[in-house]
Amino acid sequence: MTDLGALVTNIELSSQAGGRSTVTFPTLKELSVTDALTGCELPGFQLDVSFSCFPDVVAIWSSVSEHVRQQLMQKKPRAVSVTGLGTFHVKKWLSFENGEVLTFHRPVFALAKAVAQIRELQHASIPVPDEMKTVSVSHKKIRSDVPYPEAVVQNCMQETLDFFYFILTNREDADFTLKDLGTLAIRGTAAMMAFSEDFLLTLNKSTHVVEKLLTQKWVTSDKEVAFSPSRFGRVHQFPQFEIRAVPRGAAHTDEFRVFESLLSSMGLGGNGSARFRA
């Protein structure tokens, strides 16, 4: 039986054999526990047996998600950077409709250069306003929510991202989910951050406002990208380290056109450019 500790070892060896910078995952190995999941092929090696998942890693990233949510929901929200993944902030405006003043809170995301440059990913994003303070996720604060030292938390986050980068480098598709916040969906060279409807409701406190954000395509629901097709018929799901089946599709399929139309509605066409943050 192959566990996930063996899987990351295979990736370490694969990176060495491929002549690229060697990646190592000592903290992920340390945190690994046995929990059967169904494997499948990865470029360079076979996964046809069960391997383990990382509930402790999921717990650490759940704490990251909660930290981001708390910052975005403050009365004077800050932009929040998850180093190596991207930066979140909230765009707020007022609208006078039918004799009523509506307040809109639109969460937005800027993809990190570390992700975008792996394979020239296209992503529509809005830069953080100059007057808005940007803070990074605090490893010390995350450490207070989980039974691990700060160094383990920091290394866990970085190694998860390194694993994520490796999958993208191998041209595979992936979803990176931040619990109760949103999902970064990557298909081919297109990347989109879709947000949880529960988070949108908590942020706006109005179902009408949330419905308008969604119908106007100012925000995309994570439900819309949950089963966006992949040409492989599967996506790698982080930070759960699962491989999930999705409809198989290429650019000409109806399902893929839906994904492309979502990107276009957010200002990113076929040759669109993107703004990225470190």
Structural class: alpha+beta
Contiguous runs where pLDDT drops below 50 for at least 5 residues: 34-52, 251-259, 265-278
Q: Roughly how many Å apart are the termini? A: 39 Å
Q: Rough shape?
A: globular
**Widest sheet, order of strands:** 7-6-5-8-9
- Helix-strand pattern: HHHEEEHEHHEEEHHHEEH
* Count of individual beta strands: 9
Main sheet attributes: strand count, strand direction, barrel closure: 5 strands, mixed
Residues in helices, as a percent range: 25-40%
Organism: Caloenas nicobarica
InterPro entries: CCD81, CCDC81_HU_dom_2, HU-CCDC81
Protein name: CCD81 protein
Domain CCDC81 HU: 56-122, 141-206
Structure description:
There is one protein chain. 36% of the residues lie in helices and 21% in strands. The protein starts with a helix and ends in a 13-residue tail after the last helix. A hairpin with a 3-residue loop joins strand 1 and strand 2. It has ten helices and nine strands. By secondary structure, it is of the alpha+beta class. The C terminus is likely disordered. The strands form two sheets. It has a five-stranded mixed beta sheet with strand order 7-6-5-8-9. It has a four-stranded mixed beta sheet with strand order 3-2-1-4. It has one domain. This is CCD81 protein. InterPro entries: CCD81, CCDC81_HU_dom_2, HU-CCDC81.
